Amino acid sequence: MMSKETRDADLGAPVLKIEKLCTWFDTREGTARAVDGVDLELYEGEILGLVGESGSGKSVTGYSVMGLIDPPGRIAGGRILLDGRDLTRLSEEEHRRVRGKDIAMIFQDPSMTLNPTLRIETQMIEAVRAHEACSTAQARRRAKDALDMVGIPSPEERLRAYPFELSGGMRQRVAIAIALLNKPRLIIADEPTTALDVSIQSQIIYELQTLCRETGTAMIWVTHDLAVVAGMADRLAVMYAGRIVEVGTTKEVIEQPGHPYTRGLMGSVPMHETRGRRLARIPGATPSLLHLPQGCSFRERCALADKACTRMPELAQHHQAQSIRCWHPGETDR
């Protein structure tokens, strides 16, 4: 297996590099550190699965990259580099030029992307012409090609439809097509298949995986479900209470989970060998971001916790392409 340094050299410069990102929300009760010192890298054509329970900071990380953090939220520190350009220093007008062109987002609910009062073609043509000087006919051809690319049958007919005339799976495909219209460098997919049935979910995952490979677009797939990303992501990053606790190749993280939280997530996934047995669960609940425990945020739920865990561990390399934030990486429960 190649080392991280060799892999990075082979892949070239990262499309996205997040350094010590902190996104905080100021409330009357105090400051909630939703994202607290996150470091991530993403390369051309790569799919990164960002995994964790609700409230772990996954979606806030995605919204931070998109520049969609509204008050009382704020980016309190760190850098977000897209092809070397620091997005945290952009004005709102500059962010609008980047969104939809260089970075696109696929939301869990397609209604957040689609306007119910406008035909699909109107929305897609506007998405093209907002970032590129071209005729309506040219933009419409691009829209039709994008619908065809995501597997929508009779794309000419669908262009003339309103969103309410389409099924949930078809609306999500349209939202994905809009995200692909301007050939972005990066797509952030925020649990885009959660509300769909399993067969449609599998089709969309396969189509997106293929599109990333063919176009070189990098993608962050945000999810709470390890089973969804296990078969599609190149690498996994596991988040807990605003921090990355484990990151590595999908194979390493799935086969050799080193952080107790990652093992807990793995234990809660139904598998063939666990059929008929009660699934394991992680005791306790995610701590409030306003009142995090001293040291490791997971220590109050962890069977391995000891005195060392009252200090915050660093995210340190454990195997050649796997890093873990834990004082007892790879140890089994005592």
TrEMBL record:
Residues 16-266 form the ABC transporter domain. InterPro entries: AAA+_ATPase (IPR003593), ABC_Ni/Peptide_Import (IPR050388), ABC_transporter-like_ATP-bd (IPR003439), ABC_transporter-like_CS (IPR017871), Oligopep_ABC_C (IPR013563), P-loop_NTPase (IPR027417). The keyword Flavoprotein does not apply. It is a peripheral membrane protein. It is found in: Cell inner membrane. Signal peptide: none annotated. GO terms for cellular component: plasma membrane. GO terms for molecular function: ATP binding; ATP hydrolysis activity. Belongs to the ABC transporter superfamily. PANTHER family: DIPEPTIDE TRANSPORT ATP-BINDING PROTEIN DPPD, OLIGOPEPTIDE TRANSPORT ATP-BINDING PROTEIN APPD. This is ATP-binding cassette domain-containing protein. It comes from Pseudooceanicola albus.
